[in-house]
Amino acid sequence: MLRLSKLADYATVVLVRLGERGTLATAAALAQETGVPEPTVAKLLKGLAAGGLVVSFRGARGGYRLVDELKDISVARVITVVDGPIRVTACCDGRECVHGETCGLSGQWDMVNQAVRQALESISLADMANPALKFDPSSAASAGATMRVAEGQGGCHAGCVGNS
């Protein structure tokens, strides 16, 4: 099963909230607004700053803000900054594994890895922040991840840590 790490999920929640605010925010404020524990938010913000997604400002009126707008940040970029390169198996992207000669699939997972990466690159944090957008599974097989405007307002996904 492919599963997003808890830190990548939290980073997405924190970044969306930071983008919605449009102003500087402290780790404490973001923790309060998202329900993510403050030590986790502080750790994430440091890593997100190192990864070029946020910029920090020191001082009494300091805090963090996004470097780019939500529409310009893909889910793939967030995952890569938090968890490293997106790979569905150890032998993706031309990497070899100890079973390469016997499994017969060496390099074949690359097409799956590429499809997953393309799907995640096609979804922005602005898409994630828009409750009117829903995944359209009927066209996903041929067109990658496809979003559509939902007829009714939906609730939060099961992994969400807070609504603001």
From TrEMBL:
Transmembrane segments: none
Listed Pfam families: Rrf2 (PF02082)
PROSITE patterns assigned to the protein according to its UniProt record, in alphabetical order: HTH_RRF2_1, HTH_RRF2_2
Domain of life: Bacteria
Coiled coil ranges: none
InterPro entries: SUF_FeS_clus_asmbl_reg, TR_Rrf2-type_CS, Tscrpt_reg_Rrf2, WH-like_DNA-bd_sf, WH_DNA-bd_sf
Protein's UniProt name: SUF system Fe-S cluster assembly regulator
